[in-house]
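Holo prediction — NAP.
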Amino acid sequence: MKILLFGGAGQLGHELKKRAADLEFEVVSPVTKEVDITEADQVMKVVASARADVVINSAAYTAVDKAEEEPEKAFRINRDGAKNIALACAKHSSRFIHVSTDYVFDGLLGSPLSEFDPVNPVSVYGRSKWEGEEAIREVLGESALIVRTQALYGVKGVNFVHTMLKLMGEREVIKVVDDQWVSPTWAGWLAEALLDCARLPVGGTLHGSCEGAVSWYDFALEIRALSARHFEGRRQAMIEPTTADALARPAKRPVYSAFDTTKMRQVLGRAPMKWREGLVAFLGELDIR
Ligand SMILES: NC(=O)c1ccc[n+]([C@@H]2O[C@H](COP(=O)([O-])OP(=O)(O)OC[C@H]3O[C@@H](n4cnc5c(N)ncnc54)[C@H](OP(=O)(O)O)[C@@H]3O)[C@@H](O)[C@H]2O)c1
């Protein structure tokens, strides 16, 4: 099976390429300077020439705080870029799997979010990703698969786990928010789930995260505990709780955006990894435990 992958140089894209090769997919993945998804002609041309069975879009504008300063750029990539790919898939009859985010929600419900819960993005990034989803649905209806994920961490790229591990070796104390809850998701697990979806006749919206809910603070404590041996004989910073208000980041985040993964279980025929198992597997890949 052949896959055309946009965003292959990113955090999730890296894990997708690694696993696709192991699972005997043929992958074509142009970098941004070869194909910019905001350029409709370039996208149309590569979708036509790749003749892929499935097109996966993992390319996005992901700088959540910076997006508040440059909304045009965020919308150009996350909404218009996604639409360009959908139009090309419609024209060339390719299946389309697009990656979206928990930031389409405000997280005020206070319980795990299903695909049927109402969205209400509270940031520019969240709105741009939601409008990208809507643009895809307008073009392809339910035949496109939109997989929302969250709190991703992979071997490549900047993410919460890498940041914690780095700061734990540099600081005495790290303050982490204790009033926002997520389902931390190992990008290696998500990559496998997306590749399984590529082989399945599934469309619509799907919540794709590791299972369970945890505050960022408790997640940081778990990272600290699981990496204690790695820090043996060296300083390992203490983790202290703080609030989202005290941190005052430019973009608002959802309060509680852990996912209900019932539908993903049904589609895959197995339960997603629990968030702690994902973290253990990831630290194992980094050779840190
Ligand atoms: N990271 C998270 O915690 C998280 C959470 C929820 C959902 N998601 C979603 O998951 C997906 C993957 O995220 P990620 O963490 O892997 O992101 P990432 O590491 O920032 O990678 C994004 C990729 O998109 C590419 N890209 C950006 N603008 C482009 C353009 N105009 N044309 C072509 N490619 C472009 C980037 O290439 P360059 O490096 O060349 O710019 C990069 O390879 C995204 O859809 C994101 O919204 C992520």
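READOUT: The pocket of NAP is lined by residues 6-7, 9-13, 32, 36-38, 58-62, 77, 81, 99, 101, 129, 149-152, 157 (CB under 6 Å).
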